[in-house]
Amino acid sequence: RSLQKEASISCSLCLQVTVEGVNGGSVVLPCSSTQHDLKLQDVSVHWRHNNSEIVYDIIKGGDVVSVQNPRYKNRAETFPDEYLRGNFSIKLNNLQHTDGGTFSCLITPSNEQETIQLNIKELTAGKGNKSIEQANQGSAQTTTVIIICVVVILLVLILISAMAYFMFHRRRRFQAAV
């Protein structure tokens, strides 16, 4: 913990981003190293929430969840195939309102730190917003209306064609009789 405070005061590269998520959804919290010659056996990555809760630790290329805050158990996941590229981002699933706040990712020994402000929003059907269900329902209604219009236009064209056909043959018969 004191290591994190020292590093955050004198970090060589500090970045801050804002990420928005929806209650019950998922987000990827970005964290990347600018170092190109990473040796995973020398790298430690510490993910923290509001400077205290242990979200995830990656030590020497391995995930360490034994000291992880239980709130994040089975909800925080990493991308191990990306470690060698310097990508130590995490995906946080099943977002809760209490997940809102500041997440920090500290990469040592390079003392790189990224700070992510996570804002959690409710998925509401309030003014100007539609829930996913309402949007899908509206889309289905639009599709139904389009299909009905196409069918009606086709029926009208068939009816006009049939009338023209009968009128043409009727005129031919009338002319043949005269």
Automatic annotation (TrEMBL):
Gene3D superfamilies attached to this UniProt entry: Immunoglobulins (2.60.40.10)
A Pfam family matched in the record: V-set
Membrane-spanning residues: 145-168
Membrane topology: Single-pass type I membrane protein
Any one GO cellular component localisation term in the record: external side of plasma membrane
Matching PANTHER family: BUTYROPHILIN SUBFAMILY 2 MEMBER A2-LIKE-RELATED, T-LYMPHOCYTE ACTIVATION ANTIGEN
UniProt name for this protein: Ig-like domain-containing protein
UniProt organism field: Cyprinus carpio carpio
